[in-house]
Amino acid sequence: MPDSTTGPTTVSALDPRLAARLKRDDAGLVAAIVQQHDTGDVLMLGWMDDEALHRTLTTGRVTFWSRSRQEYWRKGDTSGHVQVVRSVALDCDGDALLVRVHQVGAACHTGTRTCFEAGGDLGAVVGDLPPGTVDPSTTPDPDPEEENQ
């Protein structure tokens, strides 16, 4: 049962090997970045404890822990704007999840496609690579057929 001062405290059925890899904040939560699977658009950020992650991994729908309401919520249950799970990955430090979804409708509670539309661009200076830096992502891979000739 959740404790309103420290966050969720439910006993989870999450695989103990996975649970051991998670680095949670003081409230027992891990950030979950939600991304549209086919376009790469970052839709939103939510929070998961072990139980929310377990539900997400085993039901095919994204479940979060609401820090404001102190309860679990499954995206789309009231709005119809569901998030259907395509994949879930853990980052190298174990402190963030990447949840790739098929988003139906708006991802943001404001009704916009992503939660990053309303806040808007902050006008950051666009940087340049330092002189002499080679960006391998812009270098084409060699043609394997040419290498064999």
UniProtKB/TrEMBL annotation:
Pfam families referenced in this protein's UniProt entry, alphabetically: PRA-CH
Cofactor(s) annotated in UniProt: Zn(2+); Mg(2+)
Localization, UniProt: Cytoplasm
GO molecular function: magnesium ion binding; phosphoribosyl-AMP cyclohydrolase activity; phosphoribosyl-ATP diphosphatase activity; zinc ion binding
Enzyme class: hydrolase
Domain of life of the organism encoding this protein: Bacteria
Gene3D superfamilies in the record: Phosphoribosyl-AMP cyclohydrolase (3.10.20.810)
Reactions listed under catalytic activity: 1-(5-phospho-beta-D-ribosyl)-5'-AMP + H2O = 1-(5-phospho-beta-D-ribosyl)-5-[(5-phospho-beta-D-ribosylamino)methylideneamino]imidazole-4-carboxamide; 1-(5-phospho-beta-D-ribosyl)-ATP + H2O = 1-(5-phospho-beta-D-ribosyl)-5'-AMP + diphosphate + H(+)
E.C. no: 3.5.4.19
The UniProt record lists the keyword Cell division: no
Translocase listed as a keyword: no
Record keywords, A-Z: Amino-acid biosynthesis, Cytoplasm, Histidine biosynthesis, Hydrolase, Magnesium, Metal-binding, Zinc
Domain annotation Phosphoribosyl-AMP cyclohydrolase: ranges: 44-117
Chain positions covered by the region annotation Disordered: 127-149
Low complexity bias (residue ranges): 130-140
Entry GO CC: cytoplasm
Functional description taken from the UniProt entry: Catalyzes the hydrolysis of the adenine ring of phosphoribosyl-AMP.
PANTHER family documented for this protein: HISTIDINE BIOSYNTHESIS BIFUNCTIONAL PROTEIN, PHOSPHORIBOSYL-AMP CYCLOHYDROLASE
UniProt record similarity statement: In the C-terminal section; belongs to the PRA-PH family.
Protein's name according to its UniProt entry: Phosphoribosyl-AMP cyclohydrolase
